[in-house]
Amino acid sequence: MKLNFILSILLISCNWAIGLQGLVIPQNGKILSTAGTGIAGDIHPALNPAMGISSHSYMQFSLNNWLGDVSGGHTLFHWGNEIPKQLSIQTWNAKDLELWGDSPDDSPMGTFGIHYVSAAYSMSHHFNTPYRFGFRLQTNYSHLFTESLSGITLDVGTAIPMGTSITLGAVIRNLGYEFKNNLRAELPVESGIGAAIKLPIIKASILTDLLYSSSNGQEVRTGVSTNWKWMNINAGTSISKNRNAKAMGFSLNYRRWKINYGIYFHENSAVLGIPQFLDVRRYL
What we know:
Blueprint: H1 2-13, H2 29-33, E1 58-65, E2 71-79, E3 85-99, E4 110-125, E5 132-144, E6 147-161, E7 166-180, E8 183-186, E9 190-199, E10 204-213, E11 217-226, E12 231-240, E13 244-254, E14 257-266, H3 269-272, E15 276-283
Antiparallel strand pairs: 1-2, 1-15, 2-3, 3-4, 4-5, 5-6, 6-7, 7-8, 7-9, 9-10, 10-11, 11-12, 12-13, 13-14, 14-15
């Protein structure tokens, strides 16, 4: 349908893009379920590469359905205790998009696809201090019809514990460049600060972030995440000039297995669909 092609162009032209702007798409179900909240929550290095101490190495695979017909996967390996490290690969694809010309026709001229792949390496260190410092280096490649884009970005972050119940975090994302037809262009830089407040009585954390992007302006995110034994609940909201969204999800723990599920509601859900992500983790 012609509508599918129009929606696809909208996806590529704004924040929801598969191209290098696809850096803003969540990596997995846990991030999706908090609406991207968690700079100080030690959720994922894509939110803040200053990862906390990890007692177990693990592998994780995610099946993700984003807006429209965009689907993808995310695979990662996390290892290291005092100095945690993570290696991940993410893919996004949209196939059989219809191509229409400038004049109305009874049938499309053909079909085409969109492909995006990225690889990232993250590392965190305490440097013999109570704080955590981390970086995340990511390379990206996307292909749309006859256009190819590639790029490299660097994220840096820190986590600062303020006692046993409060942690503050700060992050700068997308330091880098994209290349299109061998021409270099700067990416929109995003910076943010966040706080995580633990509530020991109910074993839950309240998360709040304030972000600023050079392309999208200011955004406020809030969320909550429980820390129970077998099952946990996550929820979050994101408010900005161009986007108002709510998300929720849950996780199940059983021995060495963990499953995360997240669902994301936004103002265009009736047109572009409702994103849903599913993660399966195996502790080693």
